[in-house]
Design brief:
The chain has 436 residues and is mostly helical. The chain has a single domain, classed as Proton glutamate symport protein (Orthogonal Bundle), CATH 1.10.3860. The protein contains 21 helices and no strands. The protein is globular, with a radius of gyration of 22 Å.
């Protein structure tokens, strides 16, 4: 069977196996000179892949956020339901990110010895020094919250768009732009919606095209790390990172969303978990909110008894803008990488920077498409904003596929919780109307 026809996740898993073979067996056996040449080549293709990813950041984030927000703002007929939907997405996403922030700080998977941290970061460690990470984060404190708000409103939006470290202003502008499109006259609004919907579709296709080269990029990013890092320590750090993400996702999945069902939706959480099992299994296997959407709508209507009106409004919108698991994952990844840099002797992120990570993880998750591995783009937005190089993403590639499946399940389940909760608050007899 032609490997080029395999699904993306199988290609990435095969690439990881090939990277392990090269990094742990072949390269140490062929000598330092040949090994160094292979490392240089791997760094080149890894850099090429990351540059391509950076290239689509601004247009993808702008088009996706504007497209998502303008539809929410233009739903004149839903009024109260639209407000509740927006409130739920914001609240659940914020809780998810805060859970991730607390868990990653308590466990500290990146607090390892300096030698292992430096080897794991590889080329990224050198990049951070050249970019002056120390000067970017040194002396930061909670007083820098004011600076965060100033960066939300840049004096020159074009200049902010050309600087990956200043995308906070671009995100704010996109949210406001999308919101005010919903206030236009019907003919003007339709013109804007057609343009931004088509622009988003183009950017999704372009991003998907670049992601198809992820197996090659993964080989270039992972192989040098496996070659240079102490293998035992490397596995230990990655293992604790993996556990940290799973634990944070589990807390949000079972506790945070369960409490929302119980006290806001007035629904038995256990019943909802059982009835949504087919949706969760599909989301886990496909790692795609969009691919799961038809089944999600059918299951929530038939098993939970939510009206077609509520499902048709909340669930498609949720598949685009409600990404609890993704936002949580982005936060944990960025803090984990920051901990690795702190372990190498560089300054750790202060409270202000960590709160900026929370805000960016929440807002960029809105612009993440419901397709596998698209969260890479969002992480590439957050890292430069706190003075960290995008190349450092390579340290988490080994676990990305299985965690992608897990966080997608949380994303989709949160959508179903939102639909059921909103339907309940709208007076619908949730689960009483369900088909037997």
């Amino acid at each position: 069977m032609n490997p080029l026809r395999w699904k993306l996740h199988w290609q990435i898993l095969a690439t990881l196996a090939l990277s392990t073979l090269f990094g742990l067996l072949i390269m140490p056996a062929i000598g330092e000179t040949a090994g160094a040449n292979i490392v240089a080549f791997c760094q080149f293709i890894g850099k090429l892949f990351m540059n391509a990813l950076k290239m689509v950041i601004v247009p993808l984030i702008v088009a996706s956020i504007i497209s998502g927000v303008m539809h929410l703002g233009s739903e004149k007929g839903v009024g109260r339901m639209g407000f509740k939907t927006f409130l739920y997405y914001t609240f659940s996403g914020a809780i998810a990110v805060i859970v991730g922030l607390i868990v990653v700080n308590l466990i500290g998977p990146g607090r390892i010895d300096a030698q292992t941290a430096t080897a794991m970061l590889g080329q990224g460690a050198e990049t951070s020094i050249s970019q002056g990470l120390m000067s970017k984060v040194e002396g930061r404190s909670s007083s820098d919250l004011f600076e965060i708000f100033l960066r939300m409103f840049p004096s020159n939006i074009v200049d902010a768009a050309t600087n990956n470290g200043q995308l906070l202003g671009v995100i704010t502008f996109s949210i406001l732009f999308g919101a005010f499109i919903g206030k236009l006259k019907p003919d003007q609004r339709e013109t804007q919606q057609k343009f931004w919907d088509s622009a988003q579709e183009v950017m999704l296709k372009l991003t998907d095209f670049i992601i198809r080269f992820a197996p090659i990029g993964v080989f270039g990013l992972v192989t040098p790390v496996l070659y240079t890092a102490p293998f035992g320590d490397l596995i230990g750090a990655i293992f604790w990172f993996f556990i940290t993400v799973l634990l944070a996702l589990a807390i949000h999945f079972f506790i945070s969303l369960g409490l929302v069902l119980k006290f806001v939706g007035k629904v038995n959480p256990i019943t909802h978990y059982k009835e949504m099992a087919p949706v969760l299994l599909t989301a886990f296997s496909t790692a795609s909110s969009s691919a799961t959407l038809p089944l999600t709508i059918e299951t929530v209507e038939e098993r939970a008894g939510v009206s077609k009106k509520t499902c048709s409004f909340t669930l498609p919108l949720g598949a685009t803008v409600n990404m609890d698991g993704t936002a949580l994952y982005e936060c944990v990844v960025v803090i984990f990488i920051a901990q690795l840099y702190a372990a190498t002797g560089q300054v750790a992120l202060g409270l202000g920077d960590q709160l900026l990570v929370v805000f960016l993880a929440l807002t960029t998750s809105i612009g993440v498409a419901g397709i596998p591995a698209a969260s890479l783009v969002a992480i590439a937005v957050i890292l430069p904003a706190v003075g960290l190089p995008v190349e450092a993403i390579g340290v988490v590639w080994v676990t990305d596929r299985i965690l992608d499946m897990c966080r997608t399940s949380v994303n989709v389940f949160s959508d179903t919780v939102g639909a059921v909760t909103i339907a309940s608050t709208e007076g619908e007899a949730v689960y009483e109307n369900a088909e037997n």
